[in-house]
Each structure stands twice: as structure tokens, then as C-alpha cells.
Design a protein that fits this description.
The chain is of the alpha/beta class. It has ten helices and seven strands. α5 links the parallel β2 and β3.
Length: 334
């Protein structure tokens, strides 16, 4: 696929999300000054090198990696906890054969389980929000998320907004076209060029109604941002009408992990850092729950590995489950 000319942009997905969420939530137009670079701070080699920067119009390596793990779950695990018939198609025609031929590439079962889990958890909570009458769903840093193309609530008039960098969205739409995946009427793209508009501007241009309640997901993003950007995003959701809610995943500080899990976590962190996308923010669930309530969220739930395994992976014959530093949290405005 040909490149998208994004000059003079030389920006990583992490930097894009950082500026988008840290400075793009105010009602007025802001012009943050991004840090442009000609190359990642850490050398990147191999097949993922082109995926780390968005000036070539492709998602980051980590976004692509998560998409492959969601697809791998469809191929390798039975029963599935996430039914996603589009996960393979959106990656291209050769993806399924690659997954079946080289399953060892995706053998990190706990990570694969968590990638599927976080989407399932978000979609379960979205279903409850729709039952309560919420009719807007905002996917922040949407990447290759496939929910909008299999939205079961279109008849209920659930409007879905995909928020991402214009180049990433252009690449994704070409993938959809090649895979003959139709863009539903219930979907609105909200490309945000943070040099020219805020997140509020981008959503407003896409038809988002801030005066009405909304459901937000922020998956695979928090770890790459500064805490201030995370807090600004959460405050934005907390300012929404009653019934609005956000689901996000995060990692606990490595110091809270047992030695074995800490070592595995550090290995994975080093791998992502070498791809130019270092992990920045860790959250302590006990103290952060209090912070969320201080922001104005009336209902907060934290889902750790033990609870997740009991709810989603109980009595499996293949032993698929989650462990490690990653957790899920939901916060609702009441």
C-alpha cells in the first residue's frame, strides 16, 4: 500500500495521543507545539520499524500488534471470549494463513487473553450503557478497533465516533475498502489534527453532542501517556451529563508485582520501548479510585486479574487466562 504524505509531520502515536488528550479537551482552540523528530529516540529495526511513526500513514507497531492479537484470539482460542469476525479481515487477506502457519508468534497467551478481554469488557459495559439510554460511543485512539463495523445497536441509534490521527484513519479506511467492509451509517470518523483543532472541535465536527450522555473507551493508551493527560481526559468525561462513562485499561507499578511477573513485565516494556513507544504512566488502583471519585465519578469499578479470570475465563479446558500488571477500570458519572 502506498504511503500517505504527511510532511512536515514526523510524529509517533504516543506523542499524538499525548497532545490530543492533554491539550485537546478545552472548549477553545489551542495550538500546542508538538515535538517533531526525524527518527525514534530508540533505533527501530525489523518488520515493525515502519509502523512506529504515522508520517507514513500507518498505525503504530503496538496498535498493529494488538490488532493481530485480537485476530489470533479468533483463530487459536476456543471458546472465544470476544466474537470478532472482522478482526482478521481488517488486517488483510493473508493474515489468517499467517496466524495459522506461525501460531508461535502469538503464543504469549496471557497478553493475547488480555487484549481480547479489554475489548470484551468495554463492549459488555457499553451494552449496559445502551440499556440505560446512552446513544453515543466515543473510541479514543481507535486504531484498528472493529466494533463500529459490527455494531449490534445501530437499530437503537447508537452513534459511534472513532477518534484518531487523520493518517491512521486514512490507512484504516483503505484497509476496509480492500476487505470490502462497509462503513455503516451509525459511524462518524473524527480525525483530529492537534495542530489545528482540539478533541472537542474534532468531535463537534463529527456531530458529537456534549449536552447528551456518552460512553467512552480508552484501550491500550493510558500506559503511553503522562498522568496529566490521563487526568485531563477523565475530567472531560466527568464533565459530561449523568450516565456518561469511560472504560480504560492500565498497568500497576512494577513494584507491586511478584518477582516472576515483574521480570516478564519488564521484558515486554523493553520491547515496546525499542519500538519507540515507551511505557510512561502506572497507576496504583487503591489511590486512583479515590482520585476518580474526587473528579466527580459516582460509580467506579476496578477489575484485576483474579476477578477477570473468574468472570471471563472460568472452567476453560485450555487454561487461557490473564495475569500480570494490566487491569481494567470503569468510571461513571452519576
Amino acid at each position: 500500500m502506498g504511503n500517505i504524505n504527511m510532511e512536515p509531520f514526523r510524529i509517533s502515536r504516543r506523542d499524538f495521543l499525548q497532545y490530543l488528550l492533554a491539550t485537546g479537551l478545552s472548549s477553545g482552540l489551542v495550538h500546542p507545539k508538538p515535538v517533531f523528530s526525524q527518527a525514534p529516540s530508540t533505533p527501530v529495526t525489523g518488520d515493525h520499524a515502519r509502523g512506529t511513526r504515522m508520517d507514513d500513514g500507518r498505525p503504530s507497531a503496538t496498535a498493529l500488534g494488538a490488532a493481530f492479537l485480537r485476530a489470533a484470539h479468533q483463530v487459536l482460542d476456543q471458546p472465544r471470549i470476544l466474537e470478532d469476525p472482522i478482526a482478521l479481515r481488517i488486517l488483510g487477506s493473508e493474515s489468517e494463513s499467517t496466524l495459522r502457519s506461525y501460531p508461535e508468534r502469538y503464543a504469549t497467551r496471557s497478553l493475547r487473553a488480555f487484549i481480547a478481554l479489554r475489548s470484551r469488557f468495554a463492549e459488555d459495559e457499553l451494552a449496559r450503557a445502551v440499556q440505560r439510554g446512552v446513544r453515543q460511543y466515543v473510541i479514543l485512539g481507535s486504531g484498528l478497533d472493529t466494533f463500529p463495523y459490527r455494531n449490534p445497536y445501530a437499530a437503537s441509534r447508537l452513534r459511534v465516533y472513532e477518534v484518531d490521527h487523520p493518517a491512521t484513519q486514512s490507512w484504516k479506511r483503505r484497509q476496509l475498502q480492500q476487505a470490502k467492509i462497509a462503513i455503516p451509517e451509525s459511524l462518524a470518523y473524527a480525525p483530529v489534527d492537534f495542530e489545528k483543532q482540539t478533541l472537542g472541535d474534532g468531535l463537534g465536527r463529527a456531530g458529537f453532542r456534549k449536552e447528551e450522555s456518552a460512553f467512552f473507551s480508552l484501550l491500550g493508551v493510558v500506559i503511553y501517556l503522562t498522568k496529566s493527560a490521563v487526568v485531563e481526559t477523565l475530567k472531560f468525561v466527568a464533565s459530561m451529563p449523568s450516565g456518561s462513562e469511560i472504560v480504560f485499561d492500565y498497568c500497576v507499578p512494577p513494584s507491586l508485582l511478584p518477582e516472576g511477573l515483574r521480570s516478564a513485565h519488564e521484558m515486554l516494556a523493553n520491547r515496546t520501548a525499542k519500538l519507540g513507544e515507551p511505557w510512561i504512566t502506572y497507576l496504583d488502583p487503591s489511590s486512583f479510585l479515590s482520585e476518580l471519585r474526587q473528579m466527580g465519578f459516582g460509580l467506579v469499578e476496578d477489575l484485576g486479574p483474579e476477578e477477570a479470570n473468574q468472570r471471563y475465563f472460568k472452567d476453560r479446558s485450555d487454561g487461557l487466562q490473564v495475569n500480570g500488571a494490566s487491569r481494567l477500570m470503569k468510571a461513571r458519572v452519576c
